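Note to self: the last two entries modelled the partners one at a time, which told us nothing about the interface. This time every component goes in together.
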Amino acid sequence: MKSLRIPRSPKVVLGLGIVGFFILLTIVGPYLAPDNPNNTSFAPNLGPSGAHWFGTTSLGQDIFSQTLVGARATMVVALVAGLIATILSVSVGVAAGYLGGFTDDGLSLLSNVFLAIPGVPLLIVIDSYLPTGSRSNALVIGVIISLTGWAWGARVLRAQTMSLRNRDFVEASRIIGESRARIMFSEVAPNLLPVLASSLLFTILYSIGAYVTLAYIGLTSTSVWNWGTMLFWAQSNNAPLANEWYWFVPPGVCIAMVGTGLALLNFGIDEFINPRLREAGMTSRLRRRRGLPRRPRLGLTPVVRASSPRPARTFVKTGSGAR
Amino acid sequence: MNVEATSELQARHLTRHFSVRTPGRVLNARRVLRAVDDVSLDLRGGEVVAVVGESGSGKSVLARMLARIVRPTSGELALQGNTIPLKAKRTLDYASQVQLVLQDPFASMNPVHQIRHNLVRPLLIHGADKAHVQAQAAHALERVSLSPPEKFLDRYPHELSGGQLQRVSIARALCVRPKVLLADEPISMLDVSVRLGVLNLLRALCDGDRLAVMYITHDIASARYIANEIIVMYAGQVVEHSRGTDLVDAPTHPYTQLLIASVPDPSDPTSIAPETGARTQTLIAESGCRFSPRCPHVMDICRDTEPPQFLVGESHTSRCWLYRDQPEHAVEVALPVRRGGEEIAETRH
Amino acid sequence: MSTDALATNRNASPPSGVSATSDAASTPQVMGTRILDVKDFSVEYGWGEGAVRAVDHVDLHLERSKVLGIAGESGSGKSTLVYGFTRLLRAPGVITGGEAYFNLGDSQGTEEVLDLIGANERELRQVRWSHISVVLQSALNALNPVVRVGSQFEQVLKTHRGGLSRKERRARAEHLLSLVGLDPDRLARYPHELSGGQRQRIMIALALAVDPQLVIMDEPTTALDVVTQREIISELYELRARFGFAMIFITHDLSLLVELADEIVVMYAGRLVERATALELYEAPRHPYTLGLLNSFPPMHGERTELTGIPGSPPDLSDLPSGCSFHPRCPYAMERCSRETPPLVNTGETDRSVACWLHSGDDGVQVPIELSRRGPSGSTPAETP
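The predicted structure of the combined assembly is written out below.
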């Protein structure tokens, strides 16, 4: 593909920074943690201090360590669930959109059913049937979360595929004898990349929410630290009532920040895809600097004259009597 | 049987009907749209057959039936004398023998793939040796005068101009070494200055490689420029058909006459408006001659009975009652049934 | 630009805000029979390093009731030029230089000059449609798909002819449809229920709804069949004879322009390369590009001979060749052509100019015979002085 540009918009830079920071935390978090998150040897209910940046729980565990260690499980489950859900939605969406007919009817029915079922209660039901051992398995949890999160993406991708299906380049592939599977995944799917990226970001976001919810209501293994279990313990020890804000605020803020970062990145996709924005380099900051209106107005083409003198007049009118 | 020996692709009585909803009628009454009606033609190696018609005349559907990506309602098709069972699936072999070039070069290339992909894929699909495909792809570009090929292979479609893309499109069709090339308005989306280049290329391929070319266009002047045979279609039917340029130099059908009079011709600046007959809102008659509502010479018989093809000259036919004292032209009815394999073709008549 | 500068200046001097660098701009605008005067006009797309100059110092003028044809290939800047001086060009288009004046006066010779480049939104609104109207290539996109044809006429007439009653507006709409050869019952239809030719006729009727002095046609017949094109062109001919509006006709089809236009300008890579009356241009082209374009249309009669067209591809505006943009494709290119851009100069004949070093009159430059044919007015390019 084209060489990647450095994004110009401050929104995207911020989003990239935030998401990058948390991905880094996923990798190195557990090694950075100053203490074992299960270690109960500290004094309970300490407020934030130099020794314990985020304070301690009522069991005397270091909250800073819990936050750092918890990042990995939370992010891994979210990424796994996001990826699986996206793969599911591409397969179902592209197949339904390209093949049409009965296949489309069947697959659309399936995704509509999954759209109609409320996600979290379904998760709770599936989860409660899981053997306790697998509740701590990030992959298993990721798969069941993805089951409830793929349908929306499939609908969007189906609609996009239907609009691509009748494009000339798809017909050209049919003419040369390309197989259906190859047309779908080698010709059509790459053109869905912008929608796909956006859909991936939002399923990751959804997965974080779903995982934290499951953990918060105590349905995942409480021995695995993630931001949801931290909230679960904070809630069950009446931290909000006891005014122990340092217990539930760190995981809460982390969740909110990952969400914000992902949403900001989504703006970047928009800027990257829209060729008009990209090629002309008309970012709003440049517009302001040039004294152009921020939003282009229809029917009033802006006039900006170069401040430097024009090149020598190229139009030479010789006298009409030259003949 | 001399003619038949060089016929690469023969079509007899090809017909395609679509059923369409009629807006505003009770219960969405459906009516049959005769997109292509009883068209017979022969595509011979080393010859260009031009099919001229307005949008909606059925010329694109005809090309897609010949490429077998649209299934005919009825009719017969024979590739190199072998009857093709119409109900069967299009085979890879047929795809490699008959190739179609689409109208819009910008839309017919996948924006996410390099030019290389567009040439290598057809080669691989049709069983080329993996070791040679790169060289073959480069050779295909050279055949359409895109040289040096290395300059183009790694480009993306948006980096090329329309004329270059249309050449790539032709190269993509040619790299599987087809016998028949169907070109659906290959120059109408191109800039005026590069159109002749593409037309000359088609002519050269036809002369040099004995390719059978069908050139579909709405521009009768370009048809006259490259064709050995010209067919004019109106509302799904062949209204006039001639070998050589007789049809343009001495048009017999009122529609062809109208078409030719409409072409901007700067060498005759006084020509302003041709006689168009009564302007009516319906352009295609449901019964009788389909051109009758627009025809300046319309007679009673035209409104009631559909005219057959009359022979108005040596290999020049016209579907018009004005020539009813001429002999009728009959297309040989059935194709010789020579089948490879056990496929059973249904023969009509 | 300050609001003062945008205030109209309907007489004499150009607005103070316009940087009056050329002598032409500092002299008072007296347009006389001219309806449009565009001087040294430039348009760019985008900003900074990625900016592309789409129209490069173009001069253009149009007399009342005349037809000006603008011919050129895609990317030649023909549409950008026209949308630029009418200020209809969309982002990221920016006007970067030049002036454009429009004469609002009537044919009796009254003068009321509007500076289109300095005008504000309100003034432009007053001029659009009632004085300058535009017919686009794709009528399907230009007509509102969810509004009946009749209501679209109603809206235009209500806005620009406020004095008319509902009945009068209806009558006017029916009259306009009859002018373009359509039944009044089309008013009750939605755009998608009409054929391409009918929609384009409706666009023309809408453009003529409030008697504009200038109608701009941007490839109005390109999407249509040749028979429909012929019908519409002949209708335009009659309508112009009847109402006397001036017309700018943009197309890539030079042979169509030769029949229709009084004067033709040929554009290449954002510049004017040749200007002449239609017949002169056809009979005696002076620029190699014009000659190449004329030779790109296969003839309808005579022997079939192989034509070559123009070699190469139209240039990429972001990477233009040095000197004359046409020189890589030009069969007559000289060494000088790759170094210097030829100016558009009078050829020594009345009312025609060309931008080509072949006609510079320099010693040692032989003008090829096919580029120095005698035109219908009997003139040939000026001999070397």
